[in-house]
Amino acid sequence: MSRAARRIGLIATAYVAAQVVGLGASGAQARELIYGSWVSPKHGLNRLALPHFFKGVEKATKGEITWKLLAGGQLVSGRTTPQGIRDNMIDAGFGIAPYVPNRLPATNMIFSTYVFGGDIAAAAGAAMETVLLNCPACLAEHRRNNAIPLAGYDAAPFLLMCRDDVRGLADLKGRKVRASGAGVYLMRQAGATPVAMSPAQATTALQRGTIDCVHGAGNWIRAYGYGDIVKSVILHPTGISGPAMALYFNRKTWKSLTPGQQAAHLAFAPAVIARSVMEMHYAETEEVLADARKRGVRMHAGGAEFDRLIARFKTGQRRRNIANARRFGVKSAEAIMAAFEAALVKWRGLSKGIGRDAAKFEAALKREIYDKVDHARF
Known about the structure:
The chain has helices at about 5-25, 45-60, 80-85, 105-110, 120-135, 135-145, 170, 180-190, 200-210, 220-225, 250-255, 260-295, 305-325, 335-355, 360-370, and strands at about 30-35, 65-70, 90-95, 145-155, 160, 175-180, 195, 215, 230-235, 245-250, 300. It is of the alpha/beta class. The protein has a domain at about 160-240 and about 285-315: D-Maltodextrin-Binding Protein, domain 2. Strands 7-6-8-5-9-11 form a six-stranded mixed β-sheet, with helices on both faces. The protein has a five-stranded mixed β-sheet with strand order 2-1-3-10-4. The longest helix has about 35 residues, at about 260-295.
């Protein structure tokens, strides 16, 4: 059976199931929406954040809206998720702007601006505040793709995870490294050869030796099945990026919801961000790396040479990202970058009172962002 036929069959099955559920709905016909996830069922987004969101929406709408998760790339890949949203193949999915920079250049500029240090909550709060409140160009480009960036998170600081014992920059030179967004430029400056692919595609590439390393979050070892392949990790943090759009919502679907159903989705959107950051990217990353160390994966600090690499990278990051966005027609690139930088200062202050508390982070996201969202702009 062809891929297209399989997609059509899955959608048809989901549609029939929705009708059957609808027959038993009280007061209104139940409607099942499809979330097409290209990451595996064991990915933290699918295990930790989305189930809470789906259950919350179902309860808040009294069963009028339910969600069906189709994980593992059954309907869309990382690169084709925006197309799947645009063509009404799925009702929501997991969108990554650097995979389609020509379609989402303003959002990609924010995603490709690495935040250094370890404050994932501040980076995620600043990114989503900028996209939803201070970036008309972001909302416009998503609208052109029939989409709404309802919620997105930032990942844990990126590390280097390799299939051989790679200890530092000398070992990294000439190696093929999976990278995207700002990581492409960073790896070039490190003397490596960046290879564009999704983290999921990198699993097979690592196994076959097509690539030597992955530049990404430490919890990807579990999320994408690198555990039996990765032999060394350079622990030096090399940037936080986002927003990875965990709730990349089909705009046509959104407009078809009642005001109450929209409110239910908005009410639980901050929890998707908070749980993704606190449970998946803080707690799970630490757990996965500790487990990898116990299994004999070699851990290397990176040290001063990586500090110097990052210092060189940072000097050109702002200018480069603004120039790239302008090449794709983003006229307000400077203003968007300024808004993101201001939001980052604000959220670094807020995060001091949030710590690792998901409930406090969720409350701050609601207060600072979602209570201020103008739904009409979607």
